[in-house]
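Input chain follows. Return structure tokens only.
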Amino acid sequence: MSISHHASSNGANGDYHDMLTQNIKAYFEDWIFLSVSIILEILSAAFDQASSPSKSHYALIGMLFAIFAVITCIWELIHKVKRERAELGRWRMLWWFYHPPPNSTLFGTFPDILALVGAIPQCIFATVQYVYHGRHADNPINLCLWPIVFLFCLVGLRLIKNQNRNTAHGLMLTQILISCD
């Protein structure tokens, strides 16, 4: 109770408390998006495996899950652009989002972009599977595990990133508590 009293009575500590609250909210939002993406990719792959020329409705369901996975990745990127107040700007020949000044760095991390790039092949393979099974033909592509494996690698990267972030926030919180005493 004394921690929240100190944090709200001191301006600098109140700012840190607000920043910490925003970081915790962003942390949970990131994990929700990642969890939904993993579930959709797994369901898409499972329905692709269950489908056959005589059970083309499973291929349709798998394709829909794959489309939802791509939409989820796009939604996550849009959400992060809004949350971080990124601005559209020109980078060489391409238009891209930048963090607001004074940073003005390119928006998006390598895993963020690759999550979308990983979801797109699953969507393509699921669509090809649906088309082949709709024509009662065998699909030449049996299973695309790459997006699922990649998403699990993203989980590992986020765990490492969040562990490093939590360590830094813990050190800052310790310094604030010491300065309040």
